[in-house]
Input
Amino acid sequence: MSDDVQLFNNRELSWIQFNRRVLDEARDPRNPLLERVKFLAIASNNFDEFFEIRVAGTMELVDAGLRTGENPDARDPKEELAAIRAEARTFTAAMHEVWSGELLPELERHGIRFPSIWDLEPDRRAWLRQQFEQEVFPVLTPLAVDPAHPFPSLLNKSLNLAVLLLDPREERYVHRVAVVQVPRVLPRLVRLPAMSDAGDDQGHDYVFMVDLVEEHLQALFLGLSVLHACAFRVTRDSNLDIDEEASTDLMKVLEQELNKRRRGEPVRLEISSGADPEIVARFLEAFELEADDVYECSGPVNLGRLMELYRTEERPDLKDPTFVPHVAARWDGAEDMFQALRQSDVLLHHPYDSFATVEQFVHCAAHDPRVLAIKHTIYRAGETSAIVRDLIVAAEKRKQVTVVVELKARFDEEANIRWAKRMERAGIHVVYGIVGLKTHAKATLVVRRDDHGIHHYCHLGSGNYNPTTARIYTDVGLLTAHEQIGKEVAALFNMITGYAKAPALTHLLVAPHTLRAGLAERIRREIDNATAGRPARIRGKMNAIVDPGLIRLLYEASQAGVRVELCVRGICCLRPGVPGLSDNIHVVSVVGRFLEHSRIYEFLNAGGEPEVFLASADWMTRNMDRRVEQAVPILDPSLRARVQEILDASLRDNQKARRILADGGYESVIPSSGAEPFDSQEALRQRAVFQTRREAEDPE
Output
């Protein structure tokens, strides 16, 4: 075994462990039932993206005959692919067991049923037949597969039925194969009408659209006998192949690549259990896949579409209680806002604090006649954005508006292209960052002419400027009028939009220039403090830790006696608790109602003020070296203490936290003897509710 394998856990296998933690939430009876269904759908959708990007990348390495990839453990790609397939097969079976063995019976107990079409009463079967004839049949297209009809080019993750047919008119019985795509314009669930003789508390019955189509296949193949049918879908490689150096029009090239993505190379075939071997064999040949790439599904082929059930069912008794975020700052117009920010910074912790505060910041800036310029980054803005609308208003008011749009934000490329085109039409200066680097920084800069001259105001944070995810992701942000920080943010934008070299920075850490070195310097300072007998501690909260250089430094810190405490939601290539290597490193992962997305770094800095940063970057090589990122220090002692409380809560959690083990696995954190149960997200939610109530009672 190489030193790398001993020092690091495999990135892909660590990610699968994270998704197991998501699936655990679907199993957890403490969660409301429909929330459990939602977690199952999330786990399934996560797994789709894993195959589209990560597994596809590993398969490319194998096909190219390369011996090593980007993983810190330097595992041979063939060995890695075999391990991924084995884990993926087990995980696929586990997801279906959760659905059929745990969630379905519980849903039925609460009046949400999925009866077999064949067991329905005659009047309901007749209703389904009518629905099929009127709403479904007109949009279906049977596709024959034979020498005259080449195998259809099926879209990525489209749901289909494979049909085995026989023509009774032929003397030689030869099986024919056809494919029927279930179009995405159709809902995946069909709610049945209530039975006329049912009581008041009748609940709802559903059938899957694919089952409805399968039940009526004969209508598509008149004169043929339908011998067998099974659902399937193909997952395709969704990595984009873009040569930025050679691209004269990045947007145009990207749009062309997005069209190719829908028909990328197949990497996985999911098919209903019990599929006819003849169909499976034909598909493996058509898709050029191996038997190991086939994943049998003992239930719905696409569990991710169960999110429709969560959205359709209006059952507050089966969902988390509604939550109205706390409004961290209230301003009576632009003048009041800018004056308040000159007096003190504002810390935001979403979703506990409302994202509306960030939107109001941009709105006031857009409409204030004293504002001269606004600069803003977009990574995942989403389908709707009040911020973008206000930026357009600002441009129409003749303000200088510059927006850095990251066109290559994975799976948000199309939305970002639409926003970019719309903003360009409005007269906004839209730029696409630096060639070879993704712009992942989360920054907004407002330049205003105040009474005493030009002043900078900015928002910096860990989260995307996306109102939808701001309600379900935990993120941190800082609104500040600190003039030096503002000037450094201005220099950051100049670096992105022009040819300016990386600026000399006093406060910000910026990737790919000073972030890695700044983190390394602070880790080494903690090592020096521990070696000298002074208190030393490093704490952090992030989505992933993968970078081998930073992990090795943390191992060195542990061996020097530095206490390292990390909350890492997802991938963790670091191996905590290994004797002699990482005894002093403790890592937990919190998976709960909200997606943990905050990036916080804390260094004890004995003999000085603790250093606490809010950042856009995880501790991954891509974030350190191939992305534009920012980390901003919290200079206000009271706000710094609040950020430390966020870290305290995550590391104290004994309800939704799992302890990461040295082998990459995990175990639930069990409350120690006498300790009270503590759910960090629920505690922070209750704190926000209490703040709102207190401010309502005492507005002053």
In short: Residues 510-697 form a domain with the Endonuclease; Chain A fold (CATH 3.30.870.10). The chain has three domains: 3-318, 334-507, 510-697. The chain has 19 helices and 27 strands. The first helix runs from residue 3 to 7.
